[in-house]
Amino acid sequence: MAAEGLSDPTVINKLSVYEATISKDDMPIDYEGNRGRWHGYGVRCSREEIDALQPYILHGWYAHFWNEEKIIVVYNDKQFELSRDDKSTWREAIEHGKAQGIPEDELDFATD
Questions:
Q1: Dihedral pair phi/psi, residue 45, rounded to 5°
Q2: Region 74-79: what's the mean pLDDT?
Q3: Mean pLDDT of 28-38
Q4: Which residues, other chains included, contact 6 with Cβ-Cβ below 8 Å and sequence gap of 6+?
């Protein structure tokens, strides 16, 4: 999850963060030409915490969460449950992201 995609990045403080990464400076951080640093977080959270996070996700961004079997993709207005091993279940989530202006190559829902 990237702090840049949240209307209030401090909401991350309510989650159990197990990893934080900060990119080098002067990286593209949106599709409007803004540059800066990415602040990425790996978190452990419950389904209830995911639901509570959704109102903070900005249009044109998503967060995704996974376990051994499934991926939950969360946009500002919709959630999708995908099979981690069956990419045919990903199409609707990818199309929704593209409709929000996210390039398809950024809708890979990486779990590594």
A1: -155, 165
A2: 98
A3: 87
A4: 12, 53, 56, 57, 58, 61
User: What pLDDT does residue 30 have?
Assistant: 81
50, 65 contact by CB (below 8 A)? yes
- pTM value > 0.90: yes
- Answer yes or no: are the C-beta atoms of 13 and 24 closer than 8 Å: no
Name, in order, each residue with C-beta under 8 angstroms of 26's C-beta and a sequence gap of 6 or more.
35, 36
Structure tokens at 90: 């990903």
Cβ atoms of residues 34 and 58 within 8 Å = no
Q: Taking the CA atoms of 92, 93, 95 and 96 in sequence, report the sign of the dihedral they define.
A: positive
